[in-house]
Design goal:
434 residues, alpha+beta, MutS, DNA mismatch repair protein, domain I, DNA polymerase, domain 1, Dna Ligase, domain 1, 5-stranded mixed sheet, 15 strands, 37% helix, 21% strand, globular, disordered C terminus, DNA_polymerase-Y, magnesium ion binding, damaged DNA binding
Amino acid sequence: MVVNAAVPGICRDCLYRTGPGERRCRACGSPRVLRHPELETLSLAHIDCDAFYAAVEKRDNPELRDKPVIIGGGKRGVVSTACYIARIKGVRSAMPMFKALQACPEAIVIKPDMEKYARVGREVRAMMLALTPLVEPLSIDEAFLDLSGTERLHGASPAMVLARFARQVEEEIGITVSIGLSYCKFLAKVASDLQKPRGFSVIGRADALTFLAEQPVTAIWGVGKTFAATLSADGIHTIGQLQHMERADLMRRYGTMGDRLYRLSRGQDDRKVEPRGEAKSVSSETTFDRDLSRVDDLLPILRALSERVSARLKKAGIGGRTVVLKLKTADFRIRTRSRQLANPTRLADRIFSAGFDMLKREADGTMFRLIGIGVSDLTDAALADPPDLVDRLSYKRALAEGAIDALREKYGRQAVETGYTFGRGKRLRPEVED
């Protein structure tokens, strides 16, 4: 990422256009001057709210402003998010709560208020849509935007429009955002993470290869701890090393992930910003011919529904972070239970596993007439199911599911069945009320 004081810039605090060589804004004295040689030509952005849940809670309770805040469940739960004060102490999203409190015992723990967060998220989304109709949400608090062709509408470059947006969100909604501006989705997402919180980073075409060469392999989507360890064992630690490897060699070693490594290490990402409608979840449910109560009877149906949801997610090129179980009792009372995963998923195995854990707690002898499973907090498929799932066994199951999908695509859905559904016949394929 090039930061060159010899090119003009934009003051992110007062939006004054600074001249070449000015280290601070001449109008307000702020050092937060945004500069880049390609600043006026780039138009693809990634916007991410900073520590969103915690920021909303601090906004609503000023007494929390200078205190470490963790949003999550009880002592046996996990961290949904943490403010930056708590992060300095080592608290991270998806960390078990007991470990988070060991790292930061003075933290204030707040139970998530998803209804409130969704409401604030919709406010931010509405402000994004005022900039461009090309908004692709990744989750409740982040999205890609394509502002190409909007200069005449706004009377300003995309960079200036985004700087105005960040200030507007801070003034009107009371939270902060970080922005990444580039020529493709991958680098816009990378850029938005560089200077959090209240960041605005730019990666252009001219400096992409140089910038990426210095980054660890974990900067690439899907490369987490486990897969990074695999690459490390092969002597690969930086993206620069990947830039000197052939596509065929990478695919021979790592399959389809090898192709992703080859392309993204070179800053090649031709995916477009694709606006989605108001769909907030993907689900499948069914009503039984007779009421059921035993886990053994409900389990194969849950598995079949999970596979159906997985197939729809894969076809749509999306994943989801939250798994939702729906049950309707014999007296027509509805129970919904949800579980947020550490990473978004589109795998039937992970959807089913989370649903099964919730079902076991609900199967207390109650008679049910309906069961459903779904995922919400929808996101881009590129962010779903990184190779370093919880353990090596999970990774192997993911590979096996990919092989099953390939066989079903070629020979039909019934060509391969799991042990949960094998031999169950029509019982697992009733009319579905999606």
